[in-house]
Amino acid sequence: MLGKINSDKPLTTVDEGKVVFDKDISTFEELEALFRDGGNGRLVENITADSVMSVDNDVKLSLNGFVLDLDSQCNIILGNGVNFDLYDEGEAVHYFTPDDSGLWIWDNTDTDGTETLSGGVICGGFSQFGGAVDVGGGTFTMHGGNIAGCVGSCGGAVSVQNGSFTMNGGKIIGNIASNYGGAVLNFNEFIMDGGEITGNSASYS
After folding, report:
1. CA separation for the pair 131, 151 (Å, rounded)
2. Which residues, 6+ apart, have CB-to-CB distance to 51 below 8 Å?
3. Are 173 and 142 in contact (CB under 8 A)?
4. Tens of pLDDT, residues 163-199
5. CA separation for the pair 40, 122 (Å, rounded)
6. Which of 179, 196, 176 has its CA nearest to residue 100?
7. pLDDT score of 105
8. Contact between residue 179 and residue 154 where contact means Cβ atoms under 8 Å apart
9. Sheet harboring 115-118: ordered strands across?
């Protein structure tokens, strides 16, 4: 097995110290600035990304029930020494339909689909490593929210090349990899303390 997985640690709760999200994010440009400058922010609109985003300073982001659509062309990259914490405070329902490959496709009108997800979603990502998040260094911690409908050559949702990925909550579903790791491709450290990973697929096991 590549890397190491530790699931023996006590379950971590999101409410250990209330996180205050003091920046409202309604545009892609505001989200880029948050990732560049750091801080705590929450989505207040659905956002469509149009380029790769790099997390350059520590960020706590709440999807807040909204959708971050990576538009089949980009992902989020973590560099060395940074912390990216993903939260969700919303309960909105979003509609998806799996295609023939099993990839969940979001209906951006949120009116029709054969599958639904409750809460915020990162979807539509595409990259060689980590369709949604490429942990090239630093730490990615998922406390809540969903990652769905992303494609990676290696790691449909998340790739951990260096650093670590800790999953405390949320769901990873309906992602695909053209090579290995339909949900997570782990080369270093993946700690699963909670949440759910289901319905992802890869060409090779």
Report:
1. 5
2. 73, 74
3. no
4. 999 999 999 999 999 999 999 999 999 999 999 999 9
5. 17
6. 176
7. 97
8. yes
9. 104-106, 93-98, 115-118
| Residues ≥6 apart with Cβ < 8 Å to 117 | 93, 94, 96, 146, 148, 171, 173
Query: Quick one: pLDDT at residue 96?
Result: 98
- Could you tell me if 89 and 114 are in contact, meaning their C-beta atoms sit under 8 angstroms apart? no
Placement of tokens 């695909």 in the chain:
176
pLDDT digit string (tens) for 58-115? 999 999 999 999 998 899 999 899 999 999 999 999 999 999 999 999 999 999 999 9
Q: How far apart are CA 193 and CA 11, in angstroms?
A: 5
User: Closest Cα to residue 68, out of 27, 119, 3, 122?
Assistant: 122
**What Å distances lie between residue 191 and 89, 106, 141, 167, CA to CA?**
22, 28, 9, 6
Residue 58, token pair as written in the block: 């520590």
